[in-house]
Specification:
Helices cover 28% and strands 21% of the residues. The strands form 2 sheets. Strands 2, 3, 5 and 6 form a 4-stranded antiparallel beta sheet that branches. A 3-stranded antiparallel beta sheet has the order 1-4-7. It is globular, with a radius of gyration of 19 Å. The model has no long low-confidence stretch (mean pLDDT 94).
Protein backbone atom coordinates (compact mmCIF):
# COMPACT_ATOMS: atom_id res chain seq x y z
CA UNK A 1 0.00 0.00 0.00
CA UNK A 2 1.18 3.52 -0.80
CA UNK A 3 -0.29 6.76 0.54
CA UNK A 4 -0.37 9.85 -1.66
CA UNK A 5 -1.83 13.33 -1.20
CA UNK A 6 -3.35 15.96 -3.44
CA UNK A 7 -4.10 19.56 -2.48
CA UNK A 8 -7.26 21.29 -3.68
CA UNK A 9 -7.16 25.08 -3.38
CA UNK A 10 -10.31 27.11 -2.97
CA UNK A 11 -12.30 27.35 -6.20
CA UNK A 12 -10.28 24.72 -8.05
CA UNK A 13 -12.00 21.81 -9.77
CA UNK A 14 -11.24 19.30 -7.00
CA UNK A 15 -12.33 21.78 -4.36
CA UNK A 16 -15.73 22.09 -6.01
CA UNK A 17 -16.04 18.39 -7.01
CA UNK A 18 -15.56 15.72 -4.33
CA UNK A 19 -13.06 13.11 -5.53
CA UNK A 20 -14.36 10.69 -2.88
CA UNK A 21 -17.46 10.45 -5.08
CA UNK A 22 -15.91 10.65 -8.55
CA UNK A 23 -12.28 9.58 -8.22
CA UNK A 24 -9.56 11.59 -9.97
CA UNK A 25 -9.20 11.86 -13.73
CA UNK A 26 -6.82 13.99 -15.76
CA UNK A 27 -8.20 17.00 -17.59
CA UNK A 28 -7.31 15.52 -21.00
CA UNK A 29 -6.94 11.76 -20.45
CA UNK A 30 -6.96 10.94 -24.18
CA UNK A 31 -3.84 13.08 -24.82
CA UNK A 32 -0.65 11.18 -25.68
CA UNK A 33 1.54 10.93 -22.51
CA UNK A 34 4.93 11.99 -23.90
CA UNK A 35 8.04 13.06 -21.94
CA UNK A 36 7.56 16.61 -23.28
CA UNK A 37 3.98 16.75 -21.97
CA UNK A 38 5.19 15.37 -18.64
CA UNK A 39 7.79 18.15 -18.39
CA UNK A 40 5.23 20.81 -19.32
CA UNK A 41 2.85 19.43 -16.69
CA UNK A 42 5.44 19.61 -13.90
CA UNK A 43 7.62 22.59 -14.85
CA UNK A 44 4.96 24.86 -16.33
CA UNK A 45 1.88 23.69 -14.44
CA UNK A 46 0.09 22.80 -17.68
CA UNK A 47 -3.19 21.32 -16.52
CA UNK A 48 -4.34 20.30 -20.00
CA UNK A 49 -2.46 17.04 -19.83
CA UNK A 50 -3.04 13.29 -19.43
CA UNK A 51 -1.50 13.37 -15.92
CA UNK A 52 -2.75 13.74 -12.36
CA UNK A 53 -0.21 15.13 -9.90
CA UNK A 54 0.16 13.37 -6.57
CA UNK A 55 2.69 13.84 -3.80
CA UNK A 56 4.10 11.60 -1.12
CA UNK A 57 4.28 14.66 1.17
CA UNK A 58 1.29 15.90 3.16
CA UNK A 59 3.18 19.19 3.64
CA UNK A 60 3.43 19.78 -0.10
CA UNK A 61 -0.28 19.01 -0.61
CA UNK A 62 -1.10 21.35 2.29
CA UNK A 63 0.92 24.14 0.68
CA UNK A 64 -0.81 23.68 -2.68
CA UNK A 65 -4.23 23.59 -1.02
CA UNK A 66 -3.63 26.72 1.03
CA UNK A 67 -1.89 28.91 -1.54
CA UNK A 68 -2.83 27.78 -5.05
CA UNK A 69 -6.53 28.43 -5.22
CA UNK A 70 -8.65 31.42 -6.14
CA UNK A 71 -8.13 32.76 -2.62
CA UNK A 72 -6.05 31.94 0.43
CA UNK A 73 -7.77 29.40 2.66
CA UNK A 74 -9.03 30.34 6.12
CA UNK A 75 -11.12 28.71 8.89
CA UNK A 76 -14.22 30.22 7.27
CA UNK A 77 -13.19 29.03 3.78
CA UNK A 78 -11.04 25.90 4.07
CA UNK A 79 -9.17 24.23 1.26
CA UNK A 80 -8.82 20.43 1.08
CA UNK A 81 -6.09 17.83 1.12
CA UNK A 82 -7.11 14.46 -0.23
CA UNK A 83 -5.47 11.28 1.02
CA UNK A 84 -5.23 8.58 -1.63
CA UNK A 85 -4.36 4.95 -0.95
CA UNK A 86 -3.22 2.80 -3.85
CA UNK A 87 -2.56 -0.88 -3.35
CA UNK A 88 -0.85 -3.56 -5.43
CA UNK A 89 -1.99 -4.49 -7.95
CA UNK A 90 -2.65 -0.98 -9.19
CA UNK A 91 -6.31 -0.57 -10.27
CA UNK A 92 -7.04 -1.39 -13.88
CA UNK A 93 -6.61 1.61 -16.17
CA UNK A 94 -4.22 3.36 -13.80
CA UNK A 95 -0.48 3.78 -14.21
CA UNK A 96 1.81 5.49 -11.70
CA UNK A 97 4.90 7.27 -13.03
CA UNK A 98 8.03 8.51 -11.29
CA UNK A 99 8.85 11.67 -13.30
CA UNK A 100 12.59 11.35 -12.63
CA UNK A 101 12.63 7.89 -14.20
CA UNK A 102 10.48 9.07 -17.12
CA UNK A 103 12.68 12.09 -17.92
CA UNK A 104 16.14 10.58 -17.31
CA UNK A 105 16.14 8.22 -20.34
CA UNK A 106 15.43 11.05 -22.78
CA UNK A 107 18.30 13.24 -21.55
CA UNK A 108 21.47 13.35 -23.71
CA UNK A 109 24.87 12.04 -22.67
CA UNK A 110 27.23 14.36 -20.69
CA UNK A 111 29.34 15.30 -23.71
CA UNK A 112 26.40 17.00 -25.39
CA UNK A 113 26.87 20.71 -26.10
CA UNK A 114 24.37 21.93 -23.50
CA UNK A 115 22.99 19.05 -21.43
CA UNK A 116 19.44 20.22 -20.73
CA UNK A 117 19.50 19.35 -17.04
CA UNK A 118 22.73 21.18 -16.20
CA UNK A 119 23.01 24.85 -15.29
CA UNK A 120 25.98 27.18 -15.21
CA UNK A 121 24.97 29.28 -12.23
CA UNK A 122 26.18 29.30 -8.66
CA UNK A 123 24.90 26.93 -5.96
CA UNK A 124 22.08 29.26 -4.92
CA UNK A 125 20.60 29.15 -8.44
CA UNK A 126 18.73 25.98 -7.48
CA UNK A 127 17.01 27.86 -4.64
CA UNK A 128 15.39 30.08 -7.26
CA UNK A 129 14.11 27.03 -9.13
CA UNK A 130 12.77 25.49 -5.93
CA UNK A 131 10.98 28.70 -4.90
CA UNK A 132 10.70 31.08 -7.87
CA UNK A 133 8.31 33.39 -6.04
CA UNK A 134 10.18 34.01 -2.79
CA UNK A 135 13.71 33.45 -4.11
CA UNK A 136 13.44 35.02 -7.56
CA UNK A 137 16.67 36.96 -7.02
CA UNK A 138 18.65 33.72 -7.34
CA UNK A 139 17.20 33.15 -10.81
CA UNK A 140 18.19 36.61 -12.04
CA UNK A 141 21.80 36.78 -10.79
CA UNK A 142 24.43 36.71 -13.50
CA UNK A 143 26.09 33.39 -14.24
CA UNK A 144 29.64 33.44 -12.83
CA UNK A 145 32.30 33.48 -15.56
CA UNK A 146 36.06 32.96 -15.51
CA UNK A 147 38.13 36.10 -14.75
CA UNK A 148 39.44 36.46 -18.30
CA UNK A 149 36.03 36.03 -19.93
CA UNK A 150 34.61 38.76 -22.10
CA UNK A 151 31.22 37.06 -22.27
CA UNK A 152 28.03 39.03 -22.04
CA UNK A 153 26.59 39.05 -18.51
CA UNK A 154 23.52 36.80 -18.48
CA UNK A 155 21.44 34.66 -16.18
CA UNK A 156 22.32 30.95 -15.84
CA UNK A 157 20.95 28.31 -18.19
CA UNK A 158 17.51 27.21 -17.08
CA UNK A 159 15.76 24.52 -19.09
CA UNK A 160 12.47 22.75 -18.77
CA UNK A 161 14.32 19.48 -18.04
CA UNK A 162 16.13 21.06 -15.07
CA UNK A 163 12.91 22.63 -13.78
CA UNK A 164 11.14 19.29 -14.07
CA UNK A 165 13.81 17.37 -12.16
CA UNK A 166 14.10 19.97 -9.38
CA UNK A 167 10.35 20.44 -8.95
CA UNK A 168 9.73 16.69 -8.96
CA UNK A 169 12.13 16.36 -6.04
CA UNK A 170 10.79 19.49 -4.34
CA UNK A 171 7.20 18.26 -4.53
CA UNK A 172 7.86 14.55 -3.93
CA UNK A 173 5.81 14.20 -7.10
CA UNK A 174 4.35 11.08 -8.61
CA UNK A 175 2.13 11.25 -11.68
CA UNK A 176 -0.92 9.14 -12.31
CA UNK A 177 -2.03 8.34 -15.83
CA UNK A 178 -5.58 7.06 -16.17
CA UNK A 179 -8.30 7.17 -13.52
CA UNK A 180 -7.81 7.00 -9.76
CA UNK A 181 -10.99 5.25 -8.61
CA UNK A 182 -13.13 6.88 -5.92
CA UNK A 183 -12.55 3.97 -3.53
CA UNK A 184 -8.82 4.89 -3.46
CA UNK A 185 -9.67 8.37 -2.12
CA UNK A 186 -9.76 7.69 1.62
CA UNK A 187 -9.98 11.14 3.22
CA UNK A 188 -10.69 14.78 2.41
CA UNK A 189 -9.18 16.99 5.11
CA UNK A 190 -10.28 20.60 5.59
CA UNK A 191 -7.16 22.76 5.87
CA UNK A 192 -6.26 26.41 6.26
Amino acid sequence: MAIFYRGAGIGTYWHIHDARQTGFIARVPQMQPTPDRLMLHIARGTVNSPFISLTRSYGIALNYANYFGKEISSPQHPAYVYEIEINEPVPSGLKLLDPIKEVAPVLPQPLGVNPPYQHDGGPTFLLGIVDPINMREYLTQHAPQPPDSEGTPRTPNLTIALETLVRTLRDAEILAEGTIPADCVKHKFEVY
